[in-house]
Amino acid sequence: MEQTSTHKHHEYSVKVIMTVLLAGAFVAILNQTLLATALPHIMADLKIDATKAQWLTTVFMLVNGIMIPVTAFLIGKFSTRGLFLTAMGLFAIGTGVAAISPTFSLLLVGRVLQAAGAGIMLPLMQTILLLMFPIEKRGSAMGMVGLVIAFAPAIGPTLSGWIVDSYSWRYLFYLIFPIAIIDIIFAYFALKNVTERKNPTLDVLSIILSTLGFGGLLFGFSNAGSNGWGSLSVLAPLIVGIVTLVLFIVRQFKLKEPILEFRVFKNPIFTLTTIIAMIVFTAMIGGATILPLYIQGMLHYSALRSGLILLPGAILMGIMSPITGRIFDKVGARGLSLVGTALLTIGTLPFVILDDHTSITLITIMYAVRMLGMAMVMMPLTTAGLNQLPRELITHGTAMNNTMRQVAGAIGTAVLITVMSSASKNAETADQMMAQIHGVNMAFLVTAVLAFVALLMSIFVKGSRKSALSK
């Protein structure tokens, strides 16, 4: 009887911890897309131009990308509870600063603080869940992460569109702030220490090289969409990023306690699943960026309507992520990956032939098919790859997986935007709107090719759910 009571108490603790972690990750990820439709209102209110305003989204992605590689070190250095409370505290302070900021500079500071907290949050959450759950239940746990990753960024533009149409843009931050504070209070009482503290030594040079490397790449590629590949604002950070990243990787292999453990790529299944996840994430972020441009700019629908068109797909992905997690626990990743990448490819093809009269119903349905495919691939593949790693490398595996996804998302979006701009300029038509639609079609053609490559790669994913520990 006492054993049953203890088991129930353990189950309750796990559920409470999961709720706290998922709530924190939800507001952090929601925050990434929340400003997209609010930028025109912020520009008018703070009297800034579009180039300056874009920094509010670019700086969030940059700081996020810089923080993620450092999380493996932070998870080893600090307690689970302390690190989560710090990350959530930074995020809450940043949200509060952004909400009341009278100037653009202070708003930017708020975004940097938010991003610093958010960059720690997702890898920390994934690490905790993988360590809390046995191998046979990890798929279900990571499916819940998939729900957050899918649902939060997708409702951002819809929610943002409604709020800025009805209230001030500051309400975007007023909405998130109390949720962050409540989550901190719950975490203070409910969160337990799950990770092992190894007290690794901090290699300052690695941190500098990592920041310049990942930061340079993300900054360069995020500038490419607006400034063109030949501009100094793209080439300079890319060169700095590539050179310092090579130096960073070489240094990690020489260190006894590397900041980011590149030896995880010695496992072929982890490497393969990470590459497929990068391609699929690019297809997701690219589609979510380009489609609203088409719906708002070429079909002339409002920001709110644009968000509502994409919402059914987001809801479907959110609902399916926990279900595909359970399926993964039973059958493994290979079947899910094959069907998922096939659906992603099929769902992308209609977007290659968009015109100025394309049915909104067709767009909504095919976008939902794409999102269903992604739900079958993203978290199951991530879990399958991480399951191959021994316990001591899981923190490095999650940090690496998240870093690669973030970089792929930034690079992929920049490439797709550039393809769209170039194709529009070179279109053989005098009609400007049709030229823009041609650009959108070409960007989705590239996405369809990437999805097909992911489908071919999925053939080589092993269906086993066993980890390196169980061999």
Automatic annotation (TrEMBL):
Keyword Transmembrane part of the UniProt annotation: yes
Any one annotated GO CC term: plasma membrane
Matches recorded under InterPro entries: EmrB-like, MFS, MFS_dom, MFS_trans_sf
CDD domains: MFS_LmrB_MDR_like
Protein name: MFS transporter
Compartment list: Cell membrane
Keyword Metal-binding listed: no
SUPFAM superfamilies for the chain: MFS general substrate transporter (SSF103473)
